[in-house]
Amino acid sequence: MTADLGQVAAASPEPTAGTSGPEQDGVPKRPSMLLRTFVENKLAVLGAVMFLAMVLFCFLGPLVYHTDQVHTSLANQNLPPGTGHPLGTDQVGYDVLGRLMVGGQTSLEIAFGAAVVAVVLGVFWGTVAGYFGGLVDSLMMRIVDSVMSIPGLFLLMFLATVFRPSVLMLVLVLGLLAWLAPARLVRGETLSLRHREYIAAVRVMGGRAPRIIFRHLVPNVIGTIVVNATFQVADAILALAAISFLGLGIPPPAANWGGMLSDGLNYTYSGFWWLIYPPGVAIIVTVLSFNLIGDGLRDAVGLRAHRHL
Amino acid sequence: MSVLEISDLVIDIRSRNASVRPVDGISLSIEAGRTLGLVGESGCGKSTTGLAVLGLLPLGGQIVRGSIRIDGQEIVGMKEAELRLVRGRSVGVVFQEPMTALNPTKRIGVQVAEPLLIHGLAGRADAMRQAIDMLGEVGLPRPQQQAERYPHELSGGMRQRVMIATALSCRPKLLIADEPTTALDVTTQDQIMRLFRRLQDELNMSMMLITHDMGVVAGNTDDVAVMYAGRLAELAETERLYGAHRHRYTEALLSSIPTLDTSRGQRLASIAGLPPNLGGALAACRFAPRCAHASQTCWDVEPDWTGTDRHHFACHWPSGGAGATVTGAVTSQGAAS
Amino acid sequence: MTAIDTSPSLDATGGGTPLVQVENVVKEYPVSGARLLGRGPVVHAVSDVSLSLSAGRTVGLVGESGCGKSTLGRLVVGLEQPTSGVVRFDGTDVRAGSREQRRRARRELQLMFQDPYASLDPRMKIGSIVGEPLVVQKQGNSAERRSRVESLLGEVGLPASAMRRYPYEFSGGQRQRIGLARVLALNPQVIVADEPVSALDVSVRSQILNLMLDLQAAHRLTYLIISHDLTTLRYMADEVGVMYLGKMVEWGPSDVLFRETVHPYTRALIDTIPTPDPVFERTKQTAPVTGELPSAIDPPSGCRFRTRCPRAEQVCSEVEPPLRAFGAGHLAACHFPLREPVGLGLPTFESSPVVESSGEAPA
Questions:
Q1: Does the beta carbon of B1 lie under 8 angstroms from any beta carbon of chain C?
Q2: What does pTM read for this prediction?
């Protein structure tokens, strides 16, 4: 009883993945399965909802709730929450709620920008170092180590005295300080992936490093990267808050949560709680939401081991 | 009384949205001192069956019905605490990948002695002594020194021997070996299989050899059970199975294996298609879609488990024997649920 | 952009220049990382092996773990650089020469991988995977490539709809078919198949092996099949080479090797193959191979097999046995072979003589 190709062709259109045959590591899940795993994780969904709510609040809020965030009004300073000002006003008369929204825009933009810079740079650095290995890898990683040992805060302070802090500058600086972790992560994954047979297959057909790196290595580390990126955003928000807290952020009338927090803390003993809690809560909520999303993504992308015996 | 008796074992694996039945009504038994080969391809359920004997089920796995008796003792329904008394003591296991089955942070002497300590069969010093003896038994040279080494310092064959020593340290009545030599070189495989035979004789131990390799089964078993898609296709004494098999899957399997006599000129037979998706619709005889001899009956009616005393099979159109007559093919107890 | 090459391979039956020549190839790997000064311990993966492949033939390489057969396979396709020695395709070094020559070597010599689950990029669609060689070699435009991929998939028994799917949707056997389709894309002359069916279920193996035979006939391919399973090679190969710890210990036409085995290691390999014949298995008498595989970093002196050989004597540890002839095209390296050598005694040069696959038409 010999098989002819026609018979086999008829039988084969039914994929039997998942039941017969061993399913190995690295088998990507279908997009719908990814979504489903994510959705099953209640906390991840909560994170996503919180994030969405925050985005709407910051970007659509001001369209609905108009306040003046440019002109100060010392006559209205430090008013407690009440009519006209649901969260009161700050020390120069800006409406706190409105400022929270506008500040959120800046914070989120900078955080995302920094995360993008960090991830792009980190992926590039990590895959090149991991793929080439040897001397190149050692060199690149030593650079990473050296940059890591530069105290970020001092660098920022120095930069702040030289340049006028702007959105772009903050994005770049935060990104350049944050790319090290993804670089390490990506390098690690690349080191294990580069010996996979499908990479060797590309070399056998004559493919060279750029193709291998961009078309084969990067797509296969995307899962880890996306997860890391969400944590990057969370970190960037905190870093921005810290920077602004130290007065190195964008000067007024531009707003951001860290700055608001910093200003508000001057009045800790005055009992003007509406100057402190709102930005603090906003920061916490946003950071938490990203952490939850990141955790959910990590599980969904399947960084867990096999599910069966 | 048989050392192992499995009756109508059915195991389901339940995940959130689906349920799959990798083992669907398996019955077999092993007598003292005998070896049963449980063969089949990947996904047929043989590993699940073998490990179920130890109460080790895959994630989401559940024994739906059936019984497993070890020396008369019913395993199904045992609590974890009771199972722990059985594992290692009455039943030993040897897995396929010795590197992952051994603890890389513990010296091998300690690992071999561990079952003795767990089951309270010996004190610390005595257990180590017995462990070193066992390492010598399984063919490790200079066992005293070997006992001090870590798994990563040993070769694959040696690690497998260590695992065998661990499995046998409590002198169990039954050894379950799940693909024990698949990861080894063929010369090492030969050594390990000889070791199994020798130890079996010395300890009068029964063995269930789970494998996909029909050659290994031929030389190392007394009886063979062929599984396909969760069910038993055929069960017979080894020589009968190879010489006078009845089920068409057995026939197809044996004729698709190249031997040293199969040279370039002769075309090797192959089985068309793939094993079925257990989650989808299945023919009554599960091999029907790939069987060259299948008829409509095979799709609609589940074949009976028939045969003589030591040779059973379930096939409507078996090979050999009296052609196509199978007793009571139509009087089956209803289609597969 | 060049046109897609679908021309039939050059016919080189009846002798003539062998298609692939492996000349005294040595491959060593440093053991740990890079060392700044001198050479640390090395793994002797391949130690002075020579062989040649003639067009249209199938050569098998057998051996157990650490014997160097996989490394040799990679050296043949030019994936790695030999530490010394050279691999030639059609006369030219596969690793040297002009860029065009090297690219040609990449086209004509292809490698098929063992692990169906690791040899396909899980993030790429089948159509892209099979078509990638064409893109890399800049052959054909997008439409031409698509139709070529379709026809390749058809040749290996997969429907055109497979192009849009991902590897995880396919079984091991189907993935090996995809691997075959990819390997054929550039219309190579030589395919090195590294354990092509070892990772597959028994009933699927014969499907793939038969497919490989069909493709060989259709495209006049030359195969180098690497396997630890002698029965696969018995079925597929015209000539078989047996390797042990980096050395070629025996070589000969397939049936001669099996019927008139000369080297004790080959004998051991053949004897320890479990056959599906219970009576034979129980009664067979074999001289077992004892002990463990020695380290490839520090292989035994003289004959590397001596530590496990039932026939080893003093001379085996002192003098490395050279390859000698035991018949037409049948060579072995052993001081105490199982048969008498034929011919005029030891060859005069130091290195092992080239083992050649004869250029006769396949039986």
A1: no
A2: 0.81
